[in-house]
Amino acid sequence: MFNAFNVTDLALVDQKPASAARRSLPDFQLMLNTPDNSGRAGRSRSGCNECRRRKLGITCVWRDPDQIRNKNKKRKTNKEIPPETAPESTDQMLIKTPTHFTAVSSPGSPAHSLIDMLKGHVQFIPDVLSPQKSLFSLPMMQSLNQTENEYLDYYVNCVSKTVSILPEETNFFLSLYIPLAAKNTSILHALLGWGGLFLAGSKENSTPLKYIKSSLNLCSDKLKAPFLTDNDKLELVSVYTILCAAEICAGDVKDWYKYFRKLHEFIVDESKGNLRALVQLLGRSEDAKWLISNFLYHDVLSSTSHQTGTIFTSEQYCEALDIGSSSMRLLDSGSVCDPLQGCVRPLYVLLGEIANTRTMLVSMEEELEQITDKEEYDKKRLDYLTLLDLSYKDLDIRIRNTEPHTRSLLFLKNDEELEHHHTLFETYKLSLQIYLRMMIRKTPPALPEIQLLLLELKPCLDIVLNTSVQAALCFPFLVAGCASVTKEDRKEMSGKLHQISSKFPVKNFERILVVIRKVWKNNNGGWKCVYWFDVAESMGWTLSLA
């Protein structure tokens, strides 16, 4: 089905020091204590630690030249860190229960250590550092009450790890949001709301919603300001991405899209719709590119985008994220690893292209229905069918030939993790092949062409279920569910979705199970195409598969 390979097969990965490259949350906390507190690997004349580990032998572009420190200065800085600030091990920081995850909230837990460390060591942070390095404001952290400490603890220890499918080295939920929250009340309250909603498991608890409302009010006040700095813009984009994710994780099917549209309006107002220009406007390219990647992720997984087309085109996303596009495949050479998408990101771009192609073809169908002249109708119908066939073949070739975002695989610790991520990529490939046929060619799921692909997809789902990448399985499960036509397949798919819904704290799996069952009801024999987004709309949902 696909070629298996191990870590040594990747030219840029050196397996021997891979374990040394691992950075846990305590390491992240220690880095926050140092003057060089960017949260990324250190730098020397021979290249940064990560570059040396990968044996690239080139100068890393993560830092500006004026940030280079020699080894002696680094050693001196490290010695100045009081040993008592080192937090405890994170091995026991999560306790898994049958229905949810519970964070251990104690004075010695990583999040409390993070908060205490920030309270005690803010004086080490120079004023000249960039916004990401200007860490936690002492008054803000001292003002947190017990509930707020619990919510923040839960966000750091549980939420940030549950939604990410990549190791902590690439977890922007910590490296970007936490430092910003230290000096921005709107972002802090958004994170508190997210942590609270995740902890409660629903939107029935009013306390987390209070923080979300406060975050929105602060955003509105900020938008009224006569002038916004680059950092203001970065913070506003960040807070809206947080609010979208918080609502989606709680199973929301309405409010999240309101925040998403507000984010879209802000991006258009600031950049005139030019995503590459937005990277420059936000002032920090790596963080800005991840925020754009985050927007892409939520755009292509929105039910609305599959009805009316994505907000931005795939060409715009590719240009901003350094993804090369050709008639044969996509080549994702972007420097930013997205903890939401991992190595699958180029396939998310192609998912957006499928949605946009279908929207274009539906528009042509509607025009055909209005034509009364037979000669004109035949000509337009030929144009429509020709475009449909060419579009299908082009997308099918690119789905088959596109390869994973290699950089996202560099931080994996062992062959088992690599197998899970590679299998996740194959899972998405097969899902997109099924989806392409149902969306563009309107192939009924009961036909052998779809059923053969489903038989390849199901073992892949079994491999990645209950692994660190299962947060990314909403879309593949939806496709597999819609493609299931026999009683046995439907019973099996229903059982797996019920299993993951009962154990996994993200509520979207529950939502897609509801949608899939309605698709089955409307397509009993599997001989017609029933679209999931139409079903969602019939229930008044704006569903996200994130």
UniProtKB/TrEMBL annotation:
Entry-linked Pfam families: Fungal_trans_2
DNA damage is among the record's keywords: no
GO terms for MF: DNA-binding transcription factor activity; transcription cis-regulatory region binding
Chain segments annotated as coiled-coil in the UniProt record: none
Keyword Nucleus annotated: yes
Region (Disordered): 69-92
Signal peptide from the UniProt entry: none
Top-rank taxon, per record: Eukaryota
Example of a GO biological process term: positive regulation of transcription by RNA polymerase II
Annotated localization: Nucleus
GO cellular component, one term: nucleus
UniProt keyword annotations, A-Z: Nucleus
Entry protein name: Zn(2)-C6 fungal-type domain-containing protein
